[in-house]
Amino acid sequence: MQHANKYIPFQPVKLENRQWPDRVIDKPPIWCSVDLRDGNQALVDPMNLQEKLEFFKTLCDIGFKEIEVGFPSASETEFEICRELIQGGHIPDDVTIQVLVQAREHLIRRTFEAIKGAKNVIVHFYNSTSTLQRKVVFKKDMKGITQIAVEGARLIRQLIKEYQGDTNIRIEYSPESFSGTETDFAVDICAAVMEELGATPENKIILNLPNTVEMCTPNTYADQVEYFIRHLPNRESAIISIHPHNDRGTGVAAAELAILAGAERVEGTLFGNGERTGNLDIITLGLNMYTQGMDPGLDFSNIPALREMYERCTRMRVHERHPYAGDLVFTAFSGSHQDAINKGVQYMRESGSKYWEIPYLPIDPADIGRQYEPIIRINSQSGKGGAAFVMQNNFGYILPKEMHPEFGSIVKAECDRLGREISAQELFDLFRSNYIDIQQKFKLGRYSFTELSGEPSEVEFRGSVVCDGVEHNISGKGNGPIDAFFKALKLVGIENYEFVSYHQHAISSGSDSKAVTYIGLKRPDGKTVFGVGISSNINKASILGVLCAVNRSLLV
Ligand code: KIV
Ligand code: ZN
Q: Residue 160 domain-assigned?
């Protein structure tokens, strides 16, 4: 990268004794969706009327009370959509629509025509104030730029008087490209607009401070917002709003720090749609607050439904790794992550904790309409814990810890062989073919157990095993059924095996209930091999487990 010296480093505002780093976010801001304007204007194919109406309804259902519906003076289509929203009765009484307009006379007049008959409206006017735009676009000095804003404000004030009636009109002013504007100038121009409009604490103006193009690290935007608020005359007559974009990929961070710096209102879009790299993603910001124990005041409990509507109406796609919403964000491939999630789920179950305490999962997927099932996916990177988790979570088989490495390496070998991840069902099929439907050199024939009298008490196994098609009668005594069977097996040459582990649990409920036994045997060569036995009789499940381990030991 040889040409870095052609870029001018950003000059942060000089803020003494900044307060925001020591604050925490303790309440949600006023939310304003700009999906239907900033989001829509950035689409390859802008939404049609039906799509905008559906999107608008969804925004109302989520709980937005302020929604920028368009730029009605920009085109006939935009004008008509605004009229349909108003005349078609689509706007709930407690929702305020917002319309954007440049600070230009004919556009402002046309905007006031578009909002006729609406109950609550925010007229949002703007002009660009940045150093660069003054130099290369408008070729005007600060005075000239201020004049544009003040004249716009004057006309709006006059039109509000003319339009007085049932419409409750509030005003928003944006010094567009605020973060690229000398902050003192941004203060001055906003103060001039406030004065022209006669803003009061009872009739506040919304001053929106766009990070139109993200220019530096998010702390510099927060500094600008705090500086602006501290220097703004008549501050209590304004609601401070922010409008972050995401050019450096830090739109959410910039919004969070700007809220710490005193912003009271936030403009953004669902999934961060918007010009270039997008606007601030309100879903991420809201759910970030939620995971800090705060209700954001917007309902994101069904992210899959929101995403479906968003993708259909905008023809955009939500990235697989998009916070909270992407396909893969609740999926752990890494073995150690899977293991930790597994332990977290177990901890929650056993401790009855009222808090969400699962490593690697900052949010309960169920809270946003996502599912647990795909949390753990199995590929060759996955560890033993992941396979065990799916076996338990999806199929109810609680594999003992000692068995995890053995089954884990079977799973890894299969993923390597296929060169892809395997599904939960494929995982279970692998378990079945390796532990249940295995090739059996030794098969259990008829058998019985007898409790022998005496102290210590003993159990006797009498029965048969079929070895390579030939039935052998065997018997043995031991301190329990497994021990007795194990001893009887010596008669068919199964010797020098050491019994190393035994685990059993019930697998299904009610009359269908079965016992699953996991048996670990150490072979004469020192290798431990596991076997699984399943039966409605617990003793039978155990001896089947022993035979399974023996049979497997001859195969692996
Ligand atoms: O990004 C921006 O500056 C805007 C303004 C029009 C508010 O969208
Ligand atoms: Zn914008």
A: yes
Ligand 1 atom having least distance to the Cα of 279 = 1
Average pLDDT for the chain: 95
Predicted TM-score (pTM) of the model is 0.80
Compute, in angstroms, the gap from residue 332 CA to the centroid of ligand 1: 38
On whether residue 130 sits in a domain, the answer given is yes
Q: What range does the domain containing 394 cover?
A: 335-421
Q: Which of 102, 174, 208, 265 should be mutated for ligand 1, with most atoms under 8 A from CB?
A: 174
- pLDDT at residue 373, rounded to an integer: 54
User: DSSP assignment of 476-527, as one string?
Assistant: EEESSHHHHHHHHHGGGT--S-EEEEEEEEE-S-GGG--EEEEEEEE-TTS-
Is residue 22 included in any domain, yes or no? no
Residues with CB under 6 A from ligand 1: 38, 100, 126, 174, 176, 208, 210, 212, 243, 245
* Residue 412 and residue 343 share a domain: yes
Atom of ligand 1 nearest to the CA of 275: 1
> Which of 421, 454, 488 is where one domain is finished?
421
Residue 462 CA to ligand 2 centre (angstroms): 83
* Ligand positioned closest to the Cα atom of 98: 1
Whether residue 383 is predicted with pLDDT greater than 80 in this model: the reply is: no
Task: Please check whether residue 329 lies inside any domain of the structure.
Answer: no
pLDDT, average across residues 7-33: 97
pLDDT band at 555 (very low <50, low <70, confident <90, very high): confident
Distances (CA, A) of 231 to 15, 183, 284, 492: 11, 9, 31, 93
- How is residue 373 annotated by DSSP? G
